[in-house]
Design a protein that fits this description.
Layout: E1 7-11, E2 15-17, H1 22-26, E3 36-38, H2 39-43, E4 49-53, E5 56-60, E6 65-68, E7 74-75, E8 79-81, E9 85-87, H3 95-98, H4 105-125, E10 133-137, H5 141-160, E11 171-175, H6 187-199, E12 202-205, E13 210-214, E14 217-220, E15 225-227, E16 230-233, E17 237-239, H7 241-245, E18 250-251, E19 254-255, E20 269-271, H8 291-309, E21 324-329, E22 332-336, E23 342-344, H9 345-359, H10 363-379
Parallel strand pairs: 1-4, 8-20, 10-11, 10-16, 11-12
Antiparallel strand pairs: 2-3, 5-6, 6-7, 9-17, 13-14, 14-15, 18-19, 21-22, 22-23
C-alpha cells in the first residue's frame, strides 16, 4: 500500500538478521553474511524510506520526538516501536555473566568462536573433564535446534577433523524444566524430537531446572554439577532495555496495545512484534514472540497509518496462524499446522528448508545458503569453521 509519507527507519545495526538461522552460524554451518541483509540495499528501491544507524535512548511522547545516542532528535507524526526483545535469564544466578544467548549475530559468532577455539585447544593440549561439554538451557525450538546441530558437529568433526579426540569426552546436554521439549507442539512430535536427539547422542534432561551457572560449571536444581566449557541460554526472551525504559503501559513486560496495535492511551504510537502485548482473538494470551506475528503486525500497523492519513477508522489486527516448525538436524524436523496436519522426519525437514529459503532476504543470501546446505548435506561435511575472534 502506497501512502504519502516519509519513513525513517532506525536500528543499531545496518543489516537485517534472519534470526531463525542464527544457530547455524553458531555451529559453523553458515557464514554471518549468509543471513545478514544490508538495510541500505532495501532502501534503494524505496525513495520515501530513509535509514539512520543509531541507538534510541528516549521518546518524548508529548513533543513527538525520538532521541538517539548520536546526533539530533527526530520528530514524528506516527511512531512504530519494533525494537524486539532481549535474552531473559529469569534471575538465575550467574546466567547473565556466564551463559551465551543466541538472539543476535554477535551471540552466534561468539558461540561459534568458543566452540571452535575449545576444540582446537583440546586437540593441541589435551582434554580435562568438562572441556568439551556444552550445556543448553531451554527445550524450545532454539534449544532443540542448537542441540541437534551441535550433535551433528560433534559426530562428524571428531571423525574427520579431530580424530585425535575421544568422542565420549564431547558431551551435549539439553536441560528443560518441563516434562517435554517443544512445549508448543503436539506431544507426539515432542517425543519424536527427544528420540532423535537421544539417538544422536544428546543427553536430554527433562523436569530439571538450573540453579546456578559458573564460569566452568552448571548447578542443576537436583544438585548435580555439570562441568562444561560453554552454556547456551535458550530458555526464552524478555523485554529489551528500550521497552523497560519507556513510560508506557505494560502487561507482563510487554507494551499494552489495543486491537489495532496502537499503544493504549496513545493515538499516534504503534507497538509491534516482541515488544507488544497483542493477543490472540478471544484470548488473554499474548501472541508468541516469533517472526510470523511480528511480520503480520508490521504490515497491519502500516495499513492503519495509511487509513488514519485518509481520515478512516482503524481495523483490529487478526493473526493468521500459519503453523510452527523446528528442525533437529539432517532429515529430522517437526512441523504442525492449524489444520491439524503434523509432519516429522524427512518431509518436515524438506518443508523447513524450503520455507526458510523463501523468507531469506536477497538473492545472494538465498543462493549462498542453498549452496552451503547442498554441500553440507550431500558431502556430509560442515561449513566455515574459521575462528573469527581473538
Amino acid at each position: 500500500m502506497d501512502a504519502p509519507v516519509d519513513i525513517v527507519l532506525t536500528d543499531r545495526h545496518n543489516y537485517n538478521t534472519f534470526q531463525p538461522l542464527l544457530y547455524q552460524v553458531a555451529t559453523a554451518g553458515l557464514n554471518p553474511g549468509d543471513i545478514a541483509y544490508p538495510v541500505r540495499s532495501y532502501t534503494r528501491g524505496h525513495p520515501s524510506l530513509t535509514f539512520r544507524q543509531d541507538v534510541v535512548t528516549n521518546v518524548d511522547f508529548a513533543r513527538r520526538e525520538v532521541s538517539f545516542v548520536e546526533g539530533a532528535p527526530t520528530s514524528y507524526d506516527y511512531l512504530v516501536l519494533a525494537a524486539g526483545a532481549a535474552t531473559n535469564f529469569f534471575g538465575v544466578e550467574g546466567a547473565e555473566e556466564h551463559a551465551r544467548g543466541i538472539y543476535t549475530m554477535e551471540d552466534a559468532v561468539a558461540v561459534r568462536n568458543t566452540v571452535s577455539s575449545t576444540m582446537e585447544r583440546a586437540a593441541s593440549h589435551g582434554v580435562q573433564e568438562g572441556d568439551l561439554t556444552v550445556v543448553i538451557v531451554g527445550g524450545g525450538p532454539t534449544g532443540v535446534e542448537m542441540a541437534g546441530a551441535l550433535a551433528e558437529l560433534r559426530n562428524m568433526e571428531l571423525k574427520t577433523t579431530y580424530s585425535m579426540l575421544d568422542p565420549s569426552l564431547c558431551r551435549v546436554v539439553l536441560v528443560e524444566q518441563r516434562d517435554r521439549v517443544l512445549g508448543a507442539f503436539h506431544s507426539k512430535l515432542s517425543s519424536y524430537a527427544v528420540k532423535v536427539l537421544t539417538d544422536r547422542g544428546v543427553e536430554v534432561r527433562l523436569d530439571e531446572s538450573v540453579k546456578q551457572i559458573h564460569a566452568a560449571s552448571v548447578v542443576l536444581g537436583s544438585g548435580e554439577v555439570l562441568l562444561c566449557a560453554l552454556v547456551i541460554w535458550a530458555a526464552g526472551v524478555g523485554a529489551c532495555a528500550l521497552t523497560e525504559s519507556l513510560d508506557l503501559p505494560k502487561i507482563r513486560g510487554r507494551i499494552e496495545v489495543g486491537p489495532d496495535l496502537r499503544v493504549t492511551g496513545f493515538d499516534d504510537v504503534f507497538a509491534i512484534g516482541d515488544m507488544a502485548s497483542a493477543r490472540l482473538a478471544g484470548s488473554d494470551q499474548p501472541l508468541p514472540q516469533l517472526a510470523q506475528p511480528a511480520t503480520q503486525e508490521g504490515k497491519h500497523a502500516g495499513e492503519q497509518i495509511a487509513r488514519l492519513l485518509k481520515g478512516e477508522a482503524t481495523t483490529p489486527f487478526v493473526y493468521k496462524d500459519k503453523g510452527i516448525m523446528a528442525t533437529i538436524g539432517r532429515k529430522a524436523a517437526v512441523a504442525e499446522f492449524p489444520s491439524g496436519l503434523r509432519l516429522r522426519a524427512t518431509p518436515a525437514w524438506l518443508a523447513w528448508l524450503a520455507l526458510h529459503l523463501v523468507f531469506l532476504l536477497g538473492v545472494r543470501n538465498r543462493t549462498s545458503v542453498l549452496v552451503n546446505w547442498a554441500w553440507r548435506y550431500v558431502s556430509w561435511r560442515r561449513g566455515p569453521k574459521v575462528i573469527a575472534g581473538g
